[in-house]
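Standup notes, protein team

Yesterday: finished cleaning the Caulobacter flavus set.
Today: Methyltransferase structure.
Blockers: none.

Input for Methyltransferase:
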Amino acid sequence: MRKPLLSLVAALAVTACATTPMGPAAPPPPPPADAPVAIPANIIAAVDNPLRPEVDTRRDADRLPAQVLAFAGVRNGAKVADLIPGTGYFTRILSKAVGPRGHVYAYVPDELTKLANREPAVNAIAADPAYKNVSVLLNLLPNFGAPEKLDLVFTAQNYHDMHTPLMGKPDMAVVNRRVFQSLKPGGVYLVLDHSAQPGSGLRDAEKLHRIDPEAVKAEVTAAGFVFEGESRVLRDAADKRNVSVFDPSIRGKTDQFIYKFRKPAGAR
C-alpha cells in the first residue's frame, strides 16, 4: 500500500559505512526501490505552494508528488519538459521546484489538441504571472524537442497513451530517441504510468489505459538510455491490473510504476 507523505520526511536519511581489511572498498549496493527518499526544500515548497488549486491539492495523497519529484531529482535551476502535461498538475509544481533560474516546457502534442478541438489547459498556467518560467510547446509528438538542452523529461500517466490512436500512435522508437537527443548528457527521463499485468506488453494500452512496465523499459533503453531504478511509492498490490484505470472500483488507486532512465554522461 502507498505510504503517506510524512511532515518530517525531509529530515530522513539513510547512512551506512563499511570497511574492508584489504583492497578498495566495494561500491555500496543501490537502495531498495521502496527506501525513503529525502525530500529537498525546493520540492517541499513547490508542493506547499498556496497558489495550487484545490482540485490539484486534494489529489496529493494519491499522487505523492513530493516523493515522485524527489526521485526524479528536480533541482533549482533545472530545465524540464513536462511531456503531455494534461491540466498541469505537475507543471505547476515543477515550475516552483525549478525556480526562476529554471524553466518548464509543457509539451502538448498537436495530435491531442486537434482531437480535443480546444486550446491546451496549460496555456492558462503559462499566461499566469505566477508561473513566468512555463512555456507551452505545440508540435507533433514525433517531433519532440525544446529550445535548449534539458535536465529532465518527465511524463506522468501518459506513456501508454502514446501507443494509442489518441496520440496518433507515433513511432515510439523515434519519440524516445528525440527525448534522448533533447537531454543534456547525464539527463533524466522519468516515466510514471499505470501498470498492466506482467507479460501483457502493449495489449492493454488503449482499452485499460495501462502498460506493462517491462515493455516501457525495453523501448526506452533501446533508445540509448540506461535504466537507473524504480520508486515503488505508488505501487499498490490491491490493484489486480485487469480493469480500466477509470473504473470506479480502482480510479485514483491504481498500481503505478515510476521508472528512472538516464542518458549516459558521455552521450551526445
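Follow-up from PR in the comments: Residues 9-262 form a domain with the Rossmann fold fold (CATH 3.40.50.150).
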